[in-house]
């Protein structure tokens, strides 16, 4: 039989009952950005992220992302990442020839208070990024299991 | 927040200005939400509950059992305006108080000769949402006298009885602590005028029965089964607390 | 075919920017929730949403579990001439749900 110290036993117990780690590391966020756009330089840019300052439920947070197209030419893709979610990538929207502008509204899940990051790919292949912080009262992944 | 403060202030003013015996006027759970959630409920397209209302509309026209549909007897769903305000109500044929969901199932069994839907099934909550939605804006008005009086009393007793490992009665929070916060969330009066609701926590539609079971679980009590007689009688009491509040189905809640 | 809701204005003038809205009934199980019996519900999501107008793409969205249940999208297209606005959702099992509406351009 393996002898366990009190500390190891307690850590083991904690690991049994605590939920799995529910936030990505900064390197995982960077990796998922690379998985979408490849390893390219990213500059700060005028992407507008409309999010409530305080979200009462992380299960559904209204989000509108838009990127002014006049100054930058067409926007090919907009990708949204939530830095503290267990899986940081939220969605990738690509805009076809019939889109009036690079703008999309949806509802996203947020695990906790965090920054939401958007990366836009312009027609010439340049990447720009912007971020917006949101305070979340009750996270999407850490709430009581949805029994009943 | 401002609206909540106003609502609570209005309630307090009403208490101060009235006879001591008078109860706090009912305030819809809507007033305890942040503006983004209120906006989602108010938007008839983006409100996810409308998906269930629409599904209910399809089921309404769908023949079942002996080939009849809801529409054959009742006509268009719009004809049900006002019906939802009265449930749960006394049923002469059943000899007890029944919920709207049970009334739908009774129709299915007797008039359509079809198998009843499960109480927590998507079909039943959709039909119930459809019928309640027709009464949106009308004041809730359940009867608590006559044959329903004893059910009302049992519901009230349940509401005021402490239970579960946390030893809390519904009234400990939803009467005594309205407007206080439970961690980050404001405590509402627990009004059910918006049910069936689209609940963000569930990411799904649920009836009053589902909410009662959830609340039981939250105070670590044995959950009342959805559709059990005690749950229906508790629903009657909950609805009576909100008599006069406008129906909001499908409401969106946290 | 899952239950969907779409909103496309019935008419528009040529050159108008019109708002399109679309929603599908789907739980978007994110792999972090449990059944009443305590078993983990595996990831089950819609992975792709596409909207086309006059057979050309308006928007395509790749969805991840970070999108809320009953995914909702709203975006804008420029009306050119009368034609169909078509919507398609594909879930992770490859099941496709479609919807369409006619946009009349005057």
Automatic annotation (TrEMBL), chain A:
Lineage: Bacteria, Pseudomonadati, Pseudomonadota, Alphaproteobacteria, Hyphomicrobiales
Species this chain originates from: Pseudaminobacter soli
Pfam families to which the protein is assigned, alphabetical: SoxY
Ig-like SoxY domain location: 35-141
Protein name: Ig-like SoxY domain-containing protein
Membrane spanning stretches: none
TrEMBL record, chain B:
Gene Ontology CC terms: cytochrome complex; periplasmic space
Enzyme Commission no: 2.8.5.2
Superkingdom per UniProt: Bacteria
Pfam families tied to this protein: SoxA-TsdA_cyt-c (PF21342)
Keywords: Electron transport, Heme, Iron, Metal-binding, Periplasm, Signal, Transferase, Transport
Residues that coordinate or bind heme c 1: 70, 73-74, 107
Cofactor: heme
Localisation per UniProt entry: Periplasm
GO molecular function, one term: metal ion binding
Catalytic machinery residues: 215 (cysteine persulfide intermediate)
Enzyme class: transferase
Catalytic activity: S-sulfanyl-L-cysteinyl-[SoxY protein] + thiosulfate + 2 Fe(III)-[cytochrome c] = S-(2-sulfodisulfanyl)-L-cysteinyl-[SoxY protein] + 2 Fe(II)-[cytochrome c] + 2 H(+); L-cysteinyl-[SoxY protein] + thiosulfate + 2 Fe(III)-[cytochrome c] = S-sulfosulfanyl-L-cysteinyl-[SoxY protein] + 2 Fe(II)-[cytochrome c] + 2 H(+)
Cofactor note: Binds 2 heme groups per subunit.
Signal peptide residues on this chain, from the entry's feature table: 1-21
Keyword Signal carried by entry: yes
GO annotation, biological process: sulfur oxidation
Stored SUPFAM superfamilies: Cytochrome c
Amino-acid positions noted as binding heme c 2 in the UniProt annotation, renumbered to this chain: 170, 173-174, 215
Cytochrome c domain sequence ranges: 56-140
Family to which this protein belongs: Belongs to the SoxA family.
Role played: C-type diheme cytochrome, which is part of the SoxAX cytochrome complex involved in sulfur oxidation. The SoxAX complex catalyzes the formation of a heterodisulfide bond between the conserved cysteine residue on a sulfur carrier SoxYZ complex subunit SoxY and thiosulfate or other inorganic sulfur substrates. This leads to the liberation of two electrons, which may be transferred from the SoxAX complex to another cytochrome c that then channels them into the respiratory electron transport chain. Some electrons may be used for reductive CO(2) fixation.
Subunit structure of this chain's protein: Heterodimer of SoxA and SoxX.
Official protein name in the record: SoxAX cytochrome complex subunit A
Organism: Pseudaminobacter soli
Lineage: Bacteria, Pseudomonadati, Pseudomonadota, Alphaproteobacteria, Hyphomicrobiales
Gene: soxA
UniProtKB/TrEMBL annotation, chain C:
A Pfam match: SoxZ
Encoding gene per record: soxZ
Gene3D superfamilies: Immunoglobulins
UniProt xrefs under SUPFAM superfamilies: E set domains (SSF81296)
Protein name stated in the entry: Thiosulfate oxidation carrier complex protein SoxZ
Sulphur oxidation protein SoxZ domain mapped to chain residues: 6-100
InterPro entries: Ig-like_fold (IPR013783), Ig_E-set (IPR014756), SoxZ (IPR030995), SoxZ_dom (IPR014880)
